[in-house]
Amino acid sequence: MHLVAYLKTAPTASYAPGWRHPGASLHDIWSPERYENLARLLEHARFDAGFFADGLGVPDTYKKSFADYLGRGGQVSLLDPMTVLPLMARVTTHLGLAPTMSTSFNGPYQLARSLGSLDLLSGGRAAWNVVTSATEFEARNCGMEGLPPKDERYDRADEVLEACFALWDGWDADAVVLDRERGVFVDATKVRYADYVGRYVRVRGPLSIPRSPQGRPVILQAGSSPRGRAFSARWAEMIFCSHATKEDALVYAADIRRRLEAQGRAPEDCKILPSLSVVIAETESIAREKAAFLDSLMDPELVLASSSELLGVDLSTIETAEQAEAAAGNHGIAGSRDRMSQVAKQQGITFAQAVRKPRGLIAGTPAMIADLMEDWFTSGACDGFVLPPTVFPATYEEVGRMLVPELQRRGLFRTEYAGRTLRENLANPG
C-alpha cells in the first residue's frame, strides 16, 4: 500500500484541537529545522509523499468572522508551503513533495514554472495537489468579486492542466547539452512553444524550466462531486478522499475505477487514498486513554468553525445536511459534506451533531490499526492512506516506529524505495 502525509505549515492539521496537546511542537513553527526534521521522519518511515493542504487567506465563514477560526487554532497556513518544500527536498532523496495550488487563481505559466522548478530541484519528486478552490474569501483575496460556479472552475482547471502539460512537455529529456567546447548550452530544436489557446487561459511558452527526471509533477486531486470525480478520472495519479466507513469507500472506489476505464486508463494509474487519523499505543487501553485525552482538548467553537469552512456555510445557523447544501450553493467541499452525513448515519446522530464532532480517531495497537488498513486495502476500498497528524510530530514518529514495521511484517508496505522519482515509486511500491 501507499502512505502519504497530510501536512500544514501550522501547529494543527486535520485534527483541530491537536495543537493544544502538551506534546505538540509549537516553538519551531517558523524554523527551517521543523520541516527538515519532518522530511527525514517521513522518508525514514518510507512514506510515498507528504502534501501540504493550503488556502489563500484566513477563513471567516463561521459567524462571518475569522475570530474563532484563527483565534482558537484552526487550519491556517502560517507559511507558504512553496518556501518549505525545497528545504524538505534538500535533506531527502526519495520522499515525494507536494504543494496545494489553485487553478482558479493562478495562470498556467506561473504554475508550470514553480512546480517544474520544485520537480527539478527534488530530482523528480514533486506532486501537485490540484484544487479549484471553494471559498469566497480566497476569490476576494485574488481580485474576484466572488467564486465562479463549480462547473466553470473545473472547466478552467481542465484547460490549466492542458496548458501546463504542454509547457512541461515542451522540453525533450535531452534538450540540455552543456557542451563547453561546441558552445551549445541547449539544443533549441528540442524545445517547443506550447501555443495553447483555450476559453479561459492561453499561454505561448516555451517554459524556461527544463524537463525533470519524471517528466512532470505527479497530479494529486480530491474531487468528490460528480464533476470533481470526472476531473480526477482524467488527470489524477493520486486521489485524496475522506470516508466514514469502508462501505462508503468501496462505493467511491468502484465509481472512480469505472470513470478511469471510461477515460482509457487502468485502475493502477490512479491511487485512491482515504484519510485515516490514528492514535497508536502499546496496548488498546493506552491508545483509548490517549484518544480520550485528545478529545478532552476539543474546543466546540473551533470544531464548528472548522466544519463551517469545509462546508462553506455558517453552521451557527444550520441544522440539516439539506440546509447546508442549499446554503452552500457554489461553496464548500462536497467530500466533507458527504463524510459528515456518513458519520451521522453510521453513529445514529443528527447532521447538526455530526458537524460538532472532531474528526474521528482510530485508536489501537499497531496490530489493530494494521488490521483495519489491511482490510480496506485487500478488499479494494483503497490503494493506501493519507495520514494526518493528530499530534505533530508525535503521530509520524509513532507511525514510523510502530505501525510501519507491522505493515512491513505483513508484506503490505515497502522496506525500501524501489524508484528514484515519485512516479516510479507509485508505479512500483516495492
TrEMBL record:
Its EC number is 1.14.-.-. InterPro entries: Diverse_substr_monoxygenases, Luciferase-like_dom, Luciferase-like_sf, NTA_MOA. Residues 30-380 form the Luciferase-like domain. Keywords: Flavoprotein, FMN, Monooxygenase, Oxidoreductase. It comes from Plastoroseomonas hellenica. It comes from the Bacteria. Coiled coil: none annotated. The keyword Flavoprotein applies. This is NtaA/DmoA family FMN-dependent monooxygenase. The lineage of its organism: Bacteria, Pseudomonadati, Pseudomonadota, Alphaproteobacteria, Acetobacterales. The keyword Flavoprotein applies. It is an enzyme of class 1 (oxidoreductase). GO terms for molecular function: monooxygenase activity.
